[in-house]
Amino acid sequence: MTTSPPKRIRVAIAGLGAVGMKLVSSLDAGIDGLELAAVSARDIPAAKARLADLRKPVPVVAIEELEPLADLVVECAPAALLSSIARPFLEKGKTVVVLSAGALLTQMDLVDLARAHGGQIMVPTGALIGLDAVTAAAQGEITSVRMTTRKPVKGLLGAPYLVENNIAIEDIKEPLRIFSGTPREAAVGFPANLNVAVALGLAGIGVDRTTLDIWADPSLDRNTHSIEVISDSASFTMSIANIPSENPKTGRITALSVLALLKKLGAPLRVGT
């Protein structure tokens, strides 16, 4: 008896920044069970030029044209575009991988939409080492979660919170704490920087009970995150220092985390929750 080969998951990439380009090149090189199906970018002619050397050319289309071409979309775009990217896929019961986790907090209707149509929103681990442990601890009772983020100055420049509060960090000589609050507040004030904190809040005790400090540190060349969790099943601390990608606001590990998530979708062996 012959068997048909397993169906390949058609993947669309929305956004061609540092993360999007890494995903496109990796999918084009070949990943079992996955197929690069389409790409969307703000400047379509420029995107086509950047993708001219793909082994297998794919359509480069506007965001609203992605859904019929793919089973799953990875959102690697500015947070303001999350709804326009995700909604068509969720309405058809498909999967959306969201990197702009902070934008979800003001668009939780997307979760309702996924529930109503059998779709799914997936937030990758990204730069947050140990997210599996936090998710596991949340099945019991977590007492507290505290996160401290330290970033190079150039990775924080232009953040709305700094502009609105007249906080100048360009010429600081010593580490400066620039924010203390919750991931929900940070998602507004640092929309390009702290999706990782929102993911932590969603995985654990919520974005309003998780506490967060952000430091600008002129001595650093990596984005660093330290997390302390106290729960009825375990107390643990985690620290990671991420090498920035071409975009100083995003670590290289973010794209790799998405690739790890995608590979798990059809893998015969999955390790980790």
Q: How many helices in DSSP terms?
A: 10
| CATH class annotation of the largest domain | Alpha Beta
The CATH level-2 architecture of the largest domain is identified as: 3-Layer(aba) Sandwich
> Mean pLDDT across all residues, rounded?
92
Structure in a nutshell:
The chain is α/β, with parallel strands linked by helices and 273 residues long. It has two domains: 9-126 and 253-265, Rossmann fold (3-Layer(aba) Sandwich); 131-247, Dihydrodipicolinate Reductase, domain 2.
Task: Give a verbal description of the structure.
The protein starts with 8 loop residues before the first strand and ends in an 8-residue tail after the last helix. It has two domains: 9-126 and 253-265, Rossmann fold (3-Layer(aba) Sandwich); 131-247, 2-Layer Sandwich (Dihydrodipicolinate Reductase, domain 2). Helix 1 (18-29) crosses helix 10 (252-265) and helix 3 packs parallel to helix 5. It is built from ten helices and eleven strands. Helices cover 31% and strands 24% of the residues. The protein is α/β, with parallel strands linked by helices.
Key descriptive features of the protein:
273 residues, Rossmann fold, Dihydrodipicolinate Reductase, domain 2, 2 domains, 6-stranded parallel sheet, 5-stranded mixed sheet, 31% helix
